[in-house]
Every structure is written in C-alpha cells, then in structure tokens.
C-alpha cells in the first residue's frame, strides 16, 4: 500500500473506530506503563531485566496494533492470557501461586483478560471485520492503480 493510500486507509478506520477499541488499547498501554513504573520503583534483584523489558515493549506494541486495527492481535492476546491462566490452574497450589504474584502481575493478567473479552464484543468484532474489508478495498485499488 502506498504512503498516500496508507494515510487514507488509517484516516478512514480512525473515523469508524469504536470507543471500546480505543479504551482497550488504552488499558493495554496502561499495562506497559504499570510494568515500567514497577520496574523503576521496585527493581528486581536479577542481573538481567530482559523479560521485564520484553513485556513492557510487548504490551505497548499490542496496544498500538489493537488501536490501528490489526485483528490478529486479539487472538495473540487470547493465547497469552489463556496460557497464563492454564499455568495458574495447573500449579500445585493455584491459590498460593496467585498470592506470590506481585500486584503488577495481577493487574496485567486481569487487564489482559478484560481486553480479550472486550475485543471480541460484537461492536469490536464488527469494526475489525470492517477494517479487514477496508484494507482489502485499498489493496485492490492500489493494484489497479499500479497496472
């Protein structure tokens, strides 16, 4: 997609973006901010903070992708959230494991679960479907213009 078409495409989807999708993107961005704040205020005693940095960047990138209409990210979040909860359920003592999680981990897990639910609400689902159709329309127009 050319730069001109991409700008038009993102303007069009921005006009139709439901507030719910913007809210979810904000919540996921807030996850990144919470993790960054926790990292700064309560640094870990491990020598490498790569995992913390990875999850800060991951939540920020996911928030941006959700806001920009990349539907596949909803499924990726769902997989991550489900894997996290399977880990908790399969623990020898799930309650004990939950009590050992730091408050930032509890908040990000809860926010991730909430995000998955909200991103599959009918209004969100319809918008992502329309974004996909709009993207196809722009790509077809681009191909016709190029030939």
Overview of this structure, please?
With 147 residues, the chain is mainly α. It has one domain. 83% of the residues lie in helices and 0% in strands. The protein has 7 helices and no strands. The protein is elongated and about 60 Å long. The chain starts with a helix and ends with a helix.
Distance between the termini: 14 Å
In N-to-C order, the SSE pattern is: HHHHHHH
Protein structure class? mainly alpha
Mean pLDDT, all residues:
85
Tally of DSSP helical segments: 7
Q: Estimate the helix proportion, in percent.
A: over 70%
- Whole-number total of structural domains: 1
- Taken from the alpha-carbon principal axes, the silhouette is elongated
Subunit arrangement of the protein: single chain
Strand content: under 5%
> How would a crystallographer describe the biggest sheet?
none
State the low-pLDDT regions, or none.
none
Give the number of DSSP strands. Answer: 0
Radius of gyration: 18 Å
List the helices and strands and how they pair.
Layout (H helix, E strand, L loop, with lengths): L2 H14 L2 H23 L8 H18 L4 H18 L4 H7 L2 H17 L2 H25 L1
Helix pairs in contact: 1-7, 2-3, 2-6, 4-6
Outline of this structure?
The chain is mainly alpha-helical. The protein has helices at residues 3-16, 19-41, 50-67, 72-89, 94-100, 103-119, 122-146.
């Amino acid at each position: 997609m050319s730069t001109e078409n991409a700008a038009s495409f993102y303007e069009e989807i921005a006009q139709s973006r439901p507030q719910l999708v913007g809210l979810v993107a904000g919540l996921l961005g807030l996850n990144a901010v919470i993790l960054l704040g926790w990292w700064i205020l309560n640094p870990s005693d491990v020598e490498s903070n790569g995992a913390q940095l990875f999850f800060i960047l991951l939540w920020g990138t996911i928030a941006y992708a959700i806001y920009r209409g990349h539907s596949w990210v909803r499924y990726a979040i769902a997989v991550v959230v489900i894997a996290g909860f399977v880990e908790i359920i399969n623990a020898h003592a799930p309650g004990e494991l939950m009590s050992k999680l730091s408050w930032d981990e509890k908040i990000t897990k809860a926010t991730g679960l909430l995000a998955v639910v909200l991103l599959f609400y009918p209004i969100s689902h319809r918008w992502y479907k329309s974004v996909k159709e709009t993207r196809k329309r722009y790509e077809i127009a681009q191909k016709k213009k190029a030939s």
